[in-house]
Amino acid sequence: MTFLRLLSSRATQNFTYLCSRSAGWYSEEDDSFQYALRLLGANEEEFTHGGTFEPLVLKDECKDKRAKGETVLEITTTKLHQLPIIDFAASDFGEKKQKFGFRAGPVCFN
């Protein structure tokens, strides 16, 4: 990983939140971002809505809490030690019939 960082000037990673009746970024029901995912980078900096580092939202099918959907976030950074994502926190869970999963994509160094 260190060698890739030395040869690169930018890194990108996608994170996909798989949802069932759960908001992952924006909530239409509450008209808010109170359930926005929080992603933790390798250097322990956090990516979230309204934070210092905010991911780009590529898709947000979870905003209406449908039975099945996904929210896809993209992180692009020149701070190469921020990636890969090492942990995340979901906020909208615990209600009956709510489920979630995730897929962390590979880190691409350029």
Short key terms for the protein model shown above:
single chain, 110 residues, mainly beta, five-stranded antiparallel beta sheet, three-stranded antiparallel beta sheet, 1 helix, 8 strands
Describe the model:
The chain is mainly β. 5% of the residues lie in helices and 39% in strands. The chain is built from one helix and eight strands; from the N terminus they run H-E-E-E-E-E-E-E-E. It has one helix at residues 2-6; strands at 11-20, 38-41, 46-47, 56-60, 69-77, 85-89, 99-104, 108-109. Strands 1, 4, 5, 7 and 8 form a five-stranded antiparallel β-sheet that branches. Strands 3-2-6 form a three-stranded antiparallel β-sheet, with no helix packed on it. Strand 4 and strand 5 (69-77) form a beta hairpin. The protein is elongated. The mean pLDDT is 96.
Output the helix-strand order.
HEEEEEEEE
N/C terminus separation:
13 Å
Shape: elongated
Uncertain ranges: none
Q: What structural category arises from helix and sheet content?
A: mainly beta
Strand portion: 35-45%
Percent of residues in helical segments?
under 10%
* Major sheet description: 5 strands, antiparallel
Number of helices: 1
Question: How many β-strand runs?
Answer: 8
The residue-averaged pLDDT reads 96
Radius of gyration: 14 Å
